[in-house]
Amino acid sequence: FDHIAKADADVHAYLELTEEAAFAAADKVDAAVADGTFAQMGPLAGVPVAFKDNMNMEGTHTTCSSKMLENYVSPYTATCVSRLIEAGGLPLGKLNMDEFAFGSSTETSAFGPTKNPWDLSRVPGGSSGGSAAAAAAGMACITLGSDTGGSIRQPASFCGVVGVKPTYGMVSRYGVVAFGSSLDQVGPFTRSVEDAAYAMDALCGFDPRDCTSQHFTPHFVDALSQGVEGMKVGIVPGFMDAPGLTAEVKEKLNEAAAKLEAAGAELVEVELPHADAAISAYYVLGPCEAFSNLARFDSVRYGYCAEGHKDLGGQYEGSRAGGFGTEAKRRIMLGSYLLSAGVYEKYYYPAQQVRRLITQDYERAYEQCDVILIPTSPRAAFQFGEIGDPVEMHLSDIFTVSINIAGNGGMSVPCGLGSESGLPIGVQLVSPQFKDVNMFRAAAALE
Ligand code: GLN
């Protein structure tokens, strides 16, 4: 907490500190050490952890970085949060994000942006920018983020940490404020692949409270020692011409491929022919699901309630107008339009067809390889205010969204500093569904 008080004055990763809960958990660890039962505690005993502010933790504020939920106090705890605490983690607090997870820079937070600890004039990425920055600046050992279209992997790349988006259904979404329910997954940020493996072993597994959660027994720590000998790593030559891809990111990608080959993996070329359509499909499906999920913020049962309204319609209107920020309103209006009669057939329906094609692309590619190596983000962290146009901002998700669309596992692994920018750059490993151990084996070889 002393370190956070110093480091976070500049970075602004934390929205709330949970000192009482942390010290209560630490007391349990101390007691176990004293009476010789420490070895029976969970694998994360004594490890400081923190959570993105769209995850409920009983008694804490869960704001989603929105004025809409500024005063909302969680009456219960999300499964992902309780799994880390049950494994012995010490909960330090709640972390800043783009409002309702809409964004790639954490600039849309209603409570001010988080800064990149490597260069305070730059964004940490987003939407889980607070989680990435906290892990990078040593303000927690494991932080959790959520990823709907890249919100764990892109900030991990910008902040030089490991970030994992597990296969859809591997980690429970219960208690996490929904953005796009068919795309959202929770995952960890850490400073090493090994730490991420411990976090995944604690997080993954069936939860009866999330109907999309699957039975899965994680063995991530065991996988780390398996090496990549004989493993087939797919590379996608077509991606090298992607718009905005910088030379230094290409360089890191080539270095990573060479490193995997040197460690005994075989490189094979694969194609993802419908990848070009992923951004368009995502920015139809995402806003449609967000529009539907955000309908619950009606100011009646909880959330910001505007004053001075004459009737219920006026209360809804005033509260939603005053409670949501610009990007949230943009998504709500877009989703509402796209789902309206006559328009649905033109956009939502074809976007679902594109979703099927993208999923099939991955299935075919995995007939030839065990894991795919692609960039995480086309470039290193950008300056605050550098990308003003929302459509240009959306393009920064070009390498991440298709993985949410297909439901595969994806992780960003830091590969050192870029030769031009001097900023951290990550590469992305993508696994077939529920074979996330494949990407961990490859990630361990890249460290
Ligand atoms: N940047 C993407 C968006 O704005 C992804 C966000 C996310 O994964 N939560 O939708």
From TrEMBL:
Recorded GO MF terms: ATP binding; glutaminyl-tRNA synthase (glutamine-hydrolyzing) activity; transferase activity
Domain of life: Bacteria
Statement: the UniProt record of this protein carries the keyword Amino-acid biosynthesis: no
Catalyzed chemical reaction(s): L-glutamyl-tRNA(Gln) + L-glutamine + ATP + H2O = L-glutaminyl-tRNA(Gln) + L-glutamate + ADP + phosphate + H(+)
E.C. numbers: 6.3.5.7
Record keywords, A-Z: ATP-binding, Ligase, Nucleotide-binding, Protein biosynthesis, Transferase
GO cellular component: glutamyl-tRNA(Gln) amidotransferase complex
Stored Pfam families: Amidase (PF01425)
The keyword Isomerase is annotated on this UniProt entry: no
One of the GO biological process terms: translation
Enzyme class: ligase
Amidase domain residues: 1-437
Active site residues of this protein: 52 (charge relay system), 127 (charge relay system), 151 (acyl-ester intermediate)
Free-text function comment from the UniProt entry: Allows the formation of correctly charged Gln-tRNA(Gln) through the transamidation of misacylated Glu-tRNA(Gln) in organisms which lack glutaminyl-tRNA synthetase. The reaction takes place in the presence of glutamine and ATP through an activated gamma-phospho-Glu-tRNA(Gln).
SUBUNIT field: Heterotrimer of A, B and C subunits.
Family to which this protein belongs: Belongs to the amidase family. GatA subfamily.
Entry protein name: Glutamyl-tRNA(Gln) amidotransferase subunit A
UniProt source species: Slackia faecicanis
